[in-house]
Amino acid sequence: YLAHLRVERGLSENTLEAYGRDLRKLVAFAQTRKRPALDLVQKDLTEFIGLLRDQGLGPRSQARAIHAVRGFYRYGVREGFIDADPMENLRAPRAFQALPRYLTPAQVETLLDAPDVEKPLGVRDRAILEVMYATGLRASEVIGLRAENLDMDLGIARVVGKGNKERLVPMGSVARLWVERYVAEVRCALLKGRSSPTLFLNHRGGRLSRMGLWGIVRRHAVTAGVERILSPHVLRHSFASHLLERGADLRSLQAMLGHADIS
Fold first, then answer.
1. Sign of CA dihedral 204, 205, 206, 207
2. Degrees to nearest 5, angle at CA 26 with 79 and 21
3. Across 202-206, average pLDDT
4. Which of 22, 39, 180, 252 could form a disulfide with 65 if both were Cys (CB 3.0 to 4.6 A apart)?
């Protein structure tokens, strides 16, 4: 089922990993009933959903788990493993939407100024933060960004987002200047004669990881005094909120952020 989601639906590795965790919980629950997961009935699955709630999962996490399980049983019916979908009449708890957190323009300026640009990694970090705020890219999109994806003359980043969907995102002149400085002064030194398609590299010259990016953002958030509210995703919300405050229309924001749904 997970292979089907990867190949046919093009879901991201992070989503697949989360679904895998949810389905392992289902399998473990089925083992307590001494039955395969596909043999569970509606009563069993009602108990499973209650168990998720008792384990302290929030409504959004519960909704994701139920979505994964529902898809699993629909796949089982479609492939002929089972005759009926036991999840057909079960509903997920409502996942209330929390308002996104974002920085003020003054906080963003303090954050962007936090890296020590007298040091090579400080130049890299400044370029990363500038790109994140200038484009609103997701963390996975930042670490997956390739040097060839940037048109520095036009100021356009070609981004492959969720579901392998490609979009074009404008990048401001300040972010472009910092990327150009990083490429000219730092990137080749990190590579040490090797080659890599990835734009932003770690201190060993390899691809930056999600945790590595998180660490960069958190480290400079401490320096800027905004550590309590900052994660990579908060910069994405800040990008969107500040554009909206300055008159950008929602359709343009939707396209730049790569959201399928304007809500």
1. positive
2. 95
3. 93
4. 22
